[in-house]
Amino acid sequence: MLKERNYTEGKILNSLVSLAFPIIMANVLQTMYQLIDTFWLGRLGANAVASVSLSFPILFLVLSLGGGLTLGGTVIVSQYKGARNQDQVNYSSSQTVAVIFIISILLAVFGYYMAAPLMKLVGAGPEILEDSVNYFQVSSWGFIFLFMFFVYQSLMRGIGKVITPMFIVLATVLLNLILDPLFIFGFGPIPGYGVAGAAIASVITQGLSAIAGMIILFSGKQGIKIHFSQMKFDFPWIRRLFFVGIPSSLDQSTRAGGMTVMVMLVTSFSSDIVAAYGVGARILSLVIVPALGFSIATTSLIGQNIGAGKIVRAERVGNLSSIIALCGLSAVGLILFVFAKPITTFFIPNDPHVIRDGTVFIKTMAPSFGLLGVQQVMNGVFNGAGLTKVSMLISVFSLWIVRFPVAFILSHKTPLSYEGIWWAFPVSNLLAAALAFAYYKNGSWKKEALIEKGSGFES
Question: How many distinct structural domains can be found in the chain?
Answer without folding.
Answer: 2
